[in-house]
Amino acid sequence: MKNKRVQANILILLTVFFWGISATNTKIVLEEVPPATLAFIRFSLASLLLWGINRKMNPGMRLAKKDRKRMVFCGAAGISLYFILETYGISLISAANATILLASIPIFTMFGEKMFLNRPVKREETLGAVVTLAGVGLVIGNSLNISGGYQEMIGSLLLIGAALSWVVFSLANKALEHKYSVLFNTTYQSIFGSLFLLPAALMEYNSWGPISSVSWANILYLTLFCSALCTFMYLSALKELGATITNVYINLMPFVGVLAAFIVLNETLYPMQIAGGIIVVIGISVANMKPGWEKPRYKNKKVLTQKS
């Protein structure tokens, strides 16, 4: 049990690293590729890759009829909606600000688990979340501002919306994670997510044009690491650690994202952001203080069904 928890912590750390620098990669590609089109390319390619791997790893596993609506809902919330909101948001604000705003995920997750899954929030988790949010406040520093006016505000709201959609996905996915393998869930959610992204991509037809080799390299990185591998690692960690603990790690993304934006895009890096990253690490340590925590027990597992 302890080894599984250690492995889960390593997986989520790798996920945070790859996702943390993804805003910089996305910002580069958005110079040539419109937002919804980029999201569709990422997940259509990832779906093909995952489908082939899943066929070999889970040849006898099938999606039950009763779980189809929930699987489609998870694909729509965690893939389609999240990445449309995220990609359009990143197109309007800096890569550093984007990763900072996505750090709101843990707080929304705790509220979601408390309200919809009747999960008691432990003191260590609450303290860890508060400490990490304090670190996020420092990471924001002078970086988060509204100097961009209307565009900056819209981009920020889109990123907050993306954070909320990911929390909904995390909670709704709880009912599927013990029925199917992580790879199976990742594959089907990516496929359904790609289908919902297609109409939005077609609406950007007039903005399509040639794509350079640099952009294709970044698209492949986003596809292989961020869309396929990271989704798999995130769901693996989520299954072992639970939604609140897993999402506390997301608070590392601002530090990783700001650093990547500073190195690659020459965005400003402030001393307070470095100090905030250190505090975020302390918060994660506090949240994981008791490795023997029980996994959450939910009183009502049917709460997060798709609305008709």
Protein model, in words:
By secondary structure, this protein is an all-alpha fold. The protein has one domain. It is 73% helix and 0% strand. The protein has 13 helices and no strands. It has helices at residues 2-29, 35-57, 68-92, 95-101, 105-116, 123-140, 150-172, 174-177, 182-202, 213-241, 243-248, 253-265, 271-287. α2 runs antiparallel to α3 (68-92), α3 (68-92) packs across α9 and α4 (95-101) packs antiparallel against α12. The radius of gyration is 19 Å and the shape is globular. Residues 291-308 have low confidence and may be disordered.
Mean pLDDT: 82
Please tell me how large the radius of gyration is.
19 Å
The percent of residues in helical segments reads over 70%
Distance between the termini: 39 Å
Globally, the shape reads globular
Low-confidence stretches: 291-308
List keywords for this structure.
73% helix; mainly alpha; 308 residues; single chain; disordered C terminus; 13 helices
Reconstruct the topology from this structure.
Elements (H helix, E strand, L loop, with lengths): L1 H28 L5 H23 L10 H25 L2 H7 L3 H12 L6 H18 L9 H23 L1 H4 L4 H21 L10 H29 L1 H6 L4 H13 L5 H17 L21
Helix pairs in contact: 1-4, 1-10, 1-12, 2-3, 2-9, 2-10, 3-7, 3-9, 4-12, 5-7, 6-13, 9-10, 12-13
